[in-house]
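Researcher: Following up on the earlier apo prediction. This time include the ligand. It's pyridoxal-5'-phosphate, with the SMILES given after the sequence.
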Amino acid sequence: MRLRSHLFFQRAKEVIPGGVNSPVRACKAVKSDPIFFERGEGPYLIDVDGNRYLDYVASWGPLILGHAHPNVIAEVYFASKRGTSFGAPTWLEVEMAETIRKYIPSMEKVRLVNSGTEATMSALRLARAFTGRKRIIKFDGCYHGHGDSLLVKSGSGLATFGIPASPGVPEELTAHTLSLPFNDRSAVEEAFQKYGSEIACVILEPVPANMGVIPPKEGFLSFLREITQRYGALLIFDEVITGFRVGLGGAQELFGIKPDLTCLGKIIGGGLPVGAYGGRADIMNLVAPQGPVYQAGTLSGNPIAVSAGLATIRELAKPGTYEKLETLSNLLEMGIKDVLRDLGLPYKVTRFASMLTLFFTSKELVNFQDVLSCDTEKFALFWQGMLKRGIYLPPSQFEAWFVSLAHSEKDIEYTIKAIKETLEEIERNP
Ligand SMILES: *Cc1c(COP(=O)(O)O)cnc(C)c1O
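Model: Understood. Below is the ligand-bound prediction.
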């Protein structure tokens, strides 16, 4: 059924570590081989063997319009005809920065980069430079790309500063990173009491989606805003996923919180590599060449990538888009909940806007520790069963499913039906 995928994977393993260019794509967590894709069309992915799948990965978030949206493709085409890169400014970058600031006013000044990882790395450097402090606080289960300082295992208690989550990251670096349980005010308070004058920033996904979707508790974000201000630390929202996903103004608009710095990526590139960081002008003015904090990029603000991003945002700004996403996502959530109730299964569905996770646990989910209670073996069976029914879900329990504007109500109904069949199948044969 997937012979060509299999053959490509054999070849890939010879020349690419693990056969993939980003680990989760290998589908190891769901005990499968990766699928090699040929093309995408609206809500569908088509693999190299000609199989078609309804896609909820959306390239891990960017494709909120679905695959190969005609207006995005047209902009990419016209931009590439004018030349692929100049290594010099273009008006498109100005337009992108203005567009970002228009929708996310806390980003008074914006620097474009090539990925979310670059955005968070650069924002950290800047926060440390601005405050003259070294220590940073992050939260267990929040992912901020693979920059050294942020690759830190869940800290076990406050006294222990970060242990690197990967070989090759010096402990001297992660020693400055404190990873705390998400949604835990007292852990944050304790950290500030102990190290307050040394903490440069708190960085977080305002609505974490990289441990599956775990919404913040009421008041948690405003508490972080208040405590960082009190101790002179910066608050950094990593909105690489939530930016333009949960609304044009990101999570910060929905929660009414103004972070000092914000990181963007994914949707603002419309499927091409773009990231951005920005925030208060007095902080951003430290970035070279205006200030001394070095950060650069050969392809930063690339005209083709920025064109794809601008075209995507233009589509999103049309009336009714987020309402449509909400309707579809709510339909999916309610459908899954009905199925779980009908089958008498205790599993949990979390949703925030068009991001959703079905967790194979009966536990109340507040932080990463809770998420770890999930039955990942069962999730693997579920993923395989869904694939068999032509639905491509993120190949890990700890990810968000993304609903796009290309999905139809019919697609959602089919998905709910497939979920019911799959759950019946895997619960019958445990
Ligand atoms: C994807 C992601 C990143 C990293 O972005 P890349 O483009 O993969 O480097 C950073 N932060 C969050 C919240 C993300 O979801």
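Model: Residues 321-343 form the longest helix (23 residues).
Researcher: Noted. I'll compare it with the apo version next.
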